[in-house]
Amino acid sequence: MTGVEATEQSVHAGARRGGVRALWAGNPGAVVQRGLIAARSSSWAVVLSGFFEPVFYLASMGIGLGSLIGDVQTSSGVEVSYAAFIAPALLAVSAMNGAIYDSTWNVFFKLNYGKLYEGMLATSLGPLDVALGEILYALLRGLAYATGFMIIMQALGLNLAPTAILALPAVMLIAFGFASLGMAVTSYMKTFQQMDCINFVLLPMFLFSATFYPITVYPEWVQQIVMALPLWHGVELVRGLTTGILSADMLWHVLYYVVMIAIGLVFTTKRLRALFLD
């Protein structure tokens, strides 16, 4: 090795350790592309199950139970049919499920068993490329689930206002938030038993985030807990858009997810760098 080559290699190694390129190479698309190629051989039964779960809830509770309940009052005081009340909540849940599946279990396998991130970070990719690429791939699944569910809502007449079209970018924001935070949490998991904690958190959040009934049925102190949960903010945001009941409070829901995304990206990037580069 010549002196020039040795110097160049030393500079490159230094950049990987402490420079900007140690974090970001500007190519998260390579990670997304790899995920899409790998998805060709995945079990589509597992993929589709995440889409049909909220559809079954809508059919059994929105249509079946809704015929017994009648109209329900939203948090804005407007009465809508029970099906139109829970459908936007299930739309938010659909985006969450799609994003969480890819950013937790898939990431856990790649991190601890497939050793894929070690190979990725041995290239020019930085931890932010890997984190953002995996999150964007999870976002695609969340968007696919939400788009399919949105079509079903439109066919059933459950989109009550033209602003319902804005629910799609809203669910992308929701999926982005859950994917970024989900990957951050998963990067600290070491065993499958620890991964069960994710379902332990998601299930009560799904049931109690004003998904099936108004938040006002809870005592005041329980309402405060529910309003601190990310899914509640997503439910309220999407429900406002699909029913056409808009308010300034929706900006707070958006801000909640922006902060959630930022926290997830920062922690995931730091964790991947600590695991494979430091």
Layout of secondary structure:
Elements: H1 3-18, H2 29-39, H3 44-69, E1 71-73, E2 79-81, H4 82-114, H5 116-121, H6 127-155, H7 167-186, H8 192-208, H9 220-226, H10 230-243, H11 249-276
Antiparallel strand pairs: 1-2
How would you describe the overall organization of this protein?
The protein has helices at 3-18, 29-39, 44-69, 82-114, 116-121, 127-155, 167-186, 192-208, 220-226, 230-243, 249-276; strands at residues 71-73, 79-81. With 278 residues, it is mainly alpha-helical. It has one domain. The protein has a two-stranded antiparallel ribbon. It is elongated.
Which descriptor suits the 3D outline?
Answer: elongated
Helix content: over 70%
Topology order in helix (H) and strand (E) letters: HHHEEHHHHHHHH
Q: How many strand units?
A: 2
Helix/strand-derived category reads mainly alpha
How would you state the average pLDDT, rounded? 83
Strand content: under 5%
User: Ranges with pLDDT <50 over ≥5 residues?
Assistant: 1-15
How many domains in all? 1
What's the N-to-C terminus distance? 26 Å
Query: Strand sequence of the main sheet, in spatial order?
Result: 1-2
* Biggest sheet details: 2 strands, antiparallel
Radius of gyration: 21 Å
Distinctive features:
278 residues, 11 helices, mainly alpha, disordered N terminus
Describe this structure in a few short sentences:
The protein contains 11 helices and 2 strands, in the order αααββαααααααα. The chain has 278 residues and is mainly alpha-helical. The chain has one domain.
